[in-house]
Fold each of these.
Amino acid sequence: MAERQNLLAEQRRALILDEVRRRGGVRVNELTQRLGVSDMTVRRDLDALARLGALEKVHGGAVPVDGVEPTGHEPRFEEKTGREPAAKEEIARAAASLVAPGAAVALSGGTTTYALARVLAGVPDLTVVTNSVRVADVLHTARRSPDGAEAGGPTVVLTGGVRTPSDSLVGPVADRAIAALHFDLLFLGVHGISVEAGLSTPNLAEAETNRRLVASARRVVVVADHTKWGTVGLSSFASLSEVDVLVTDSGLPAVTRAELSELPLRLLVAGEDDELPEGPAEAYPPRAG
């Protein structure tokens, strides 16, 4: 019961943030009608979001935080596609080198995992679990030849769920599907990374779905360009100690590389680490515990 109540609170708060972002502000009485809850519940949600810096409370409601991109702001897929496209392509090629034919892998939502999906389409006998509509479309298209006939390619398992602005599927349906599965590698796109906050996202429901993905994976590989470092979203869903490999690009500053060298993960810099250990499965054993 407690888990269900917590999930419902996360869903409510995600909807509140979406309303604040789209409309530039909301009133408490509007939220009570839309969400079907009491004034007291809405005010508690606003208090919690204000403490996180996701919005600013005003008399009778809430407005966006001025001056900075809120921790609860979730860019749409099209908006993110134009950010660091060359770096994402390099990261995708480096990450694909970790995948052995016949593996079961999972890809979360995101534009970097989308770039990775296009590379993985050519790896034989893969099974790909994903909660990304965009990733599923790429891999489905790869199975079809120009005349529409079946042309092979990865077997795709799409989780189902509620669609987010970044075209990921999240929520209870996605969470239950993922919890029943096990995969060799998880390739995880992230909104932000930091030593203190770990991996984070602005979407509360997506955070829970990402936790389920991490729990179902033997190895966790984060694929993120250098601009993600130091960014903190509304909700943390994993610590850096839960990551086996971080694949990034050469724009990562030296001071950040030094920070990461103190952590028990492998840093793989696309375009610099050209010689990988032989055998993707043997090269990166699962984290302890």
Amino acid sequence: MSTIGTPVPLATVEEGIPNARKQRRGGRARRIRGSRPGFWTYAILGAVFLSAVFPLYWSFVIGSGDSSTLRKPFPWIPGGNFIENALSVISNPAVNFWPALWNSIYSSFLIAAAVVITSTLAGWAFAKLRFHGGPGLLVFVVATMAVPQQLGVVPLYILFSELGWTGQIGAIIIPALTSAFGVFWMTQYLRQAVPDELIEAARVDGASMIRTFWTVGMTAARPAAAMLFLFTFVGAWNNFFWPFIVLDRQNPTLPVALSLLQSNYFVDYSVVLAGVILATIPLLLLFIFAGKQLVSGIMAGAVKG
């Protein structure tokens, strides 16, 4: 007998609604419970964290000891000589610590800011503007990342020597004002983060291309630009090869200045690693104060995207 059209008792329907709700809640709870990280996730993250923190801790252990710290058995607990070793680094006349620190801050900030500006402009052009040869030019820019930095050292040194810039801080700023990786990074981000309809709407409203870039492109590019600024600043801060070649002892950056601690006949590694810790502290402060804003910016950009 067909049951189509047979009325269902209201009591049966009312009893079925709570059961359906319980089933939905149970399925949602199982999905949420199943999406929580397990033991191996925390174990892998813990191993990665320890492998990243251990070199810094080991440097602090050696930097807080004395000249006999490296003798066996190796210590695992920091000593009490870190302040003394740090003061010996700061007061060393061969290091020029404070001028070197200022040179590193000044050059790293200018390089990071210039890379963000030029990369965002170029990324906007490659991502949202249509012009002949655009894809091929982007491939050429990306291909330059395969060229080792060492190949350009000799021509760059000859050029800056002819200009009389050797020994000056501008010699390490000018070659780093733009970055092929930064252009590629901003191109890929703007291509996905900014819809073409938004640009067309801004142009219909009468905005010029510069105004559209400033109001639409720069607003959307803030998370990626912040990450690019941070990575570029860290890379410029830690750069040693080119500043070591083109700068002199009277006007070094901090990594070049700290390398002079190893130029003596006897190398006190506790003092050397105390200097390494001093050079790492500004980067740690940068990550501490900017980390939360960077993560929140990335999450906001992901939600908007």
Amino acid sequence: MTGVPYPHPTQAVVLAGGQGSRLRPYTDDRPKPMVEIPGTGTPIIGHQLAWLAAEGVTDAVVSCGHLADVLQDWLDQAELPLRVTTVVETEPLGRGGGLKYAAASLPRPDQPWYATNGDIWTRFSLREMADFHHERGAEATLALARPRIPWGAVETDPFGHVLDFIEAPPSPYLINAGVYVFSAAFRGLLPDRGDHERMTFPRLARERRLAGFPLPHGAYWRAIDTAKDLTEAASELARYGHGHGQGRAF
């Protein structure tokens, strides 16, 4: 297929049904993706949809759950840069089942698609990730981040002498960043109920059909899990802005 342009995905699923219990009281009256980044006046999902649109996505399916009506009301009233459809799980299907249920509403089932967790605030080139996915012939590709350890580290020599103190060093391990590129056929590999990270991904990994795309150096990425994450995101926004290639590097 060399020389044939790869059609970048133009559709995406946003998983936005989480309760966000660790973000209370912010999530007492709204779902986690509706929590605003301080200083922006825009909820997390608003930043996500703007990013997806900037990366060429024209249609997004938002999977709602906890306090779905609050999210749906905001989507109905907001001026959005792309077409948005919402689906609501009437019973818990698990992450994989929920993803499969939402993907059934994608407008182009024969084309590849992106997916993102609803609590991720990030900026990097999805088109580059899609090219990476295509070049490796993968059924699924997940973005990989290297978060900073939230504690200071101590470096020692083999004899136990302390050599240095390192404040919040990068983790030696890559983690799933919660952003994906999927082939058109991937939906058929998802469970009707259950977790794709425990059921589908391990099988694809054994078959070498799962790829991992390391986020480019300097790309901004943060999972909004706690009130501390909100505070730090606001601080980083004030310091760097949140454009492509800015913010906290991983």
